[in-house]
Amino acid sequence: MFKVNLLGLMVSASLLASQTYASSQAADTVSPEVSSGVELKHSVIANEYMVASANPLATKAGYDVLNAGGSAADAMVAIQSMLGLVEPQSSGLGGGAFMVYYDAKSKKITTFDGRETAPLAATPELFQKANGEKMKFYDGVVGGRSVGTPGTVRLMGTVHKRFGKLAWGQLLQSSVDVAEQGFKVSPRLAGLIEKDQKRLSHYPDTQAYFFNTDGSPLQEGQLLKNQAYANTLKILAKEGADAFYSGKIANDIVKRVKSAKDNPGVLASEDLAIYKVKERPATCAPYRQYSVCGMGPPSSGALTVGQILGVANQFDLQAMGKDSAQAWQIIGDASRLAFADRGRYMADSDFVPMPQGLLAADYLASRAALITKGTALSKQQVTAGEPDWVNSEKLALADDVSIEFPSTSHFVIVDKEGNIVSMTTTIENGFGSRLMTNGFLLNNELTDFSFSTHKNGYPIANRLEPGKRPRSSMSPSIVMKGDQPYLAIGSPGGSRIIGYVASTIIAHLDWGLSIQEAINLPHLVNRFGTYDLEKGTSAENFKEPLEKMGYKVNVRDLTSGLHAILLKDGKLIGGADPRREGLVLGK
After folding, report:
1. Where does 368-504 show beta strands of DSSP type E?
2. 400 burial class (0-12, 13-18, 19+ CB within 10 angstroms)?
3. How wide is the angle at C-alpha 367 spanned by C-alphas 361 and 372, nearest 5°?
4. Helix (H, G, I), strand (E, B) or coil at 98
5. 516 by DSSP, 3-state: which?
6. Range with the lowest mean pLDDT among 386-395, 464-473, 519-528, 563-572?
7. What are the helix (H) ranges across 351-442?
8. β strands within 267-368, DSSP E
9. Which residues, in sequence order, are CB contacts of 505 under 8 Å at separation 6+?
10. Model confidence over 289-317: pLDDT tens digits?
């Protein structure tokens, strides 16, 4: 059995990396222009296997599994259980996830949908007041009303049974050790606790965990223990993932949701008992000589990333280069057009028919024809298109009005056999519903549904329905070159995930940046008309030229968490986002 070296808990990420990977080496030097006031990172090269995640302890846990002969699926279990402990604001046992998996033996990609589901007792009016008006977002978030049936643990168990090599209980032991012996609160976790003091203090148990006895928020470097989390993992280690969906843990989840003061929810024991992970075909979109594969509905990720790339494919972005305002105009308007389709058509396809022509070459060419170089599309020009409905009758739908916040995590794994995991995992808003039970936070994923059910008499595809999975922007992706995997990538970031992933792929494939340089590149993201430029970076240089083209521009923080592994020339080349606390380790 392997365990985390507890001495390593107290060292910095850079020291941890240098201690563990003699075979890793810097692959490139990033240019100063991409600096955003944080320490830039360098690619890591390995020969056999690699892990990249948002927290050094999680990366170390996954690496140790691979080093012990485990598979990518085994490492996924170890990483996710550790992230739920050390990065609770972003993901955990009480949330959901999407996983894209490349099986080296069959040479095929498949996907696993561990997205939360709406309780059977949920009604479309759950987030509406008695008079039919929409609730304010955070009035719906904080408390039990927003909690969907968690899917992460079922995904962990399902994938391990299918592709795991090591014993299930062994994979949870590192997180048990860290939970019992404690870990140092990271700068990011400390900052987010301080920022969310009011909501985190709403419930006594959550307040007791994230605050000191004098009421002050936990500070960077404080040792934090979580015996309740360790106890939960011990139950799961002994009884398997089923123990999360029945018995004590399940009963405690339901009790916590229904007893939440001010805002109780409707989650029931039956919702947990019937929850299933769904294996779905990957959604793949061609780009140049590559194929970008990811999660289809209920995620909008692969479709919207695919549409952005499909429209961009009609232009010579390579010749324009990364410093061209015109290139970013094309990317920005391609994104706006894709988001217009996303808002109207994309939702859980088990509940809502969808047009099959969203990625059709002729349709994307017609969307690209709307773009005039040098002039931003007007608001009136950016509407949902008319893709073909091949296998279902056309459905008249209204545009969505849901909100999606950027509190998520992404990690990538390549094992010795060449199996690949690209997984994005979340509890939705930072710290989810702010409800805690058995050492973990519960999600607020139901607020990813539209708070309105209809608009102008037409139904909204992403409306809340019992058993339905809310639409997501999570975009875990595997890029194929022919029949070979080339790149595994993804990011947190709410609906901006789509832009982060699409522009990073363009930066690498079109502009020739190394994968780490592409991750470091300042962000420019346009979803709904306003062009967001990453504050404190060279992206601000585009403010004036983009405004002259007709855009409203907003300079702001854009905290992605991109992690990627490139498979090239028999090597593994990993990159981690300098905007977060991620680490790449490999051998």
Report:
1. 408-414, 420-426, 436-437, 440-441, 454-455, 458-459, 477-481, 484-490
2. buried
3. 130
4. strand
5. helix
6. 386-395
7. 361-368
8. 278-281, 283-287, 290-294
9. 287, 292, 305, 309, 477, 479, 487, 489, 518
10. 999 999 999 999 999 999 999 999 999 99
Q: How many residues does the chain have?
A: 587
User: 152-210 pLDDT, tens per residue?
Assistant: 999 999 999 999 999 999 999 999 999 999 999 999 999 999 999 999 999 999 999 99
Q: Rounded to an integer, what distance in angstroms lies between the CA atom of residue 156 and that of residue 171?
A: 11
Task: Please give the helix or strand (H or E) that residue 318 lies within, else none.
Answer: helix 317-320
Residue 432, number of CB atoms within 10 A of its CB: 30
Residue tagged 């977002």 (tokens): 137
Residue 127 pLDDT level (bands cut at 50, 70, 90): confident
The answer to whether 111 and 99 are in contact (CB under 8 A) is yes
Q: Give which of 564, 106, 39 is closest to 292, Cα–Cα.
A: 564
Q: Are 445 and 428 in contact (CB under 8 A)?
A: yes
List, for residues 432-482, the tens digit of each pLDDT value: 999 999 999 999 999 999 888 888 778 888 999 999 999 999 999 999 999
**Closest Cα partner for 33 from 568, 582, 507, 509?**
507
d(CA 99, CA 110): 9
- Name the active-site residue from 59, 149, 158, 408: 408
Query: Is 424 assigned a catalytic role?
Result: no
Going 462 to 465 to 469 to 470, the CA torsion angle's sign is positive
Closest by Cα among 307, 320, 296 to 370: 307
Does residue 264 contact residue 145 with C-beta atoms inside 8 Å? yes
Give the helix/strand (H/E) hosting 526. Answer: strand 524-526
Over range 371-399, report the average pLDDT: 85
Distance CA 356, CA 386 (A): 11
Smallest CA-to-CA distance from 78 within 158, 3, 182 is with 3
Tokens of 509: 């494939």
Q: For residue 506, count CB atoms less than 10 angstroms from its CB and return exposed for 0-12, middle for 13-18, buried for 19 or more.
A: buried
CA distance 331 to 79: 33
